[in-house]
Amino acid sequence: MLKANDLRERTLEDLRDLEKTLAHDIFENRFKNFTNRLDDTSSIKKAKKDLARVKTILTERRRRDQGLTPVAHAAKPAKPATEVASEPPTTEEAPKSKAKKAAATVKASAKSAEKPAAPAKTKKTAATKKSEA
Hints:
Elements: H1 4-8, H2 12-34, H3 42-66, H4 81-84, H5 93-114, H6 126-132
Helix pairs in contact: 2-3
């Protein structure tokens, strides 16, 4: 299993080669699994995760080269104290949300009322089969 820190130390060419190799390994493992020749099926999942890590690092480098900062590494500004405390909904907002919930409940009950009830199935026992014949 590859670690992201180890991948960040590799060169761009090395990461691209690793990406191709992992994609090929995934293909081979899926093919072997289909033909029942794969012993460790978890290798497919591990290879997929490794490939995702490599692609993530490549995307980070591409964005860094373009001057964009990745979302995960961008500094987030601190929220002012007034925004931290959640404010209760105003009187205008509260009825709207209750009205939406009520409308959704009405729609759900209307849909269930539209469906016809399935007829009850009864099991025929040996005695009832003989009496019918």
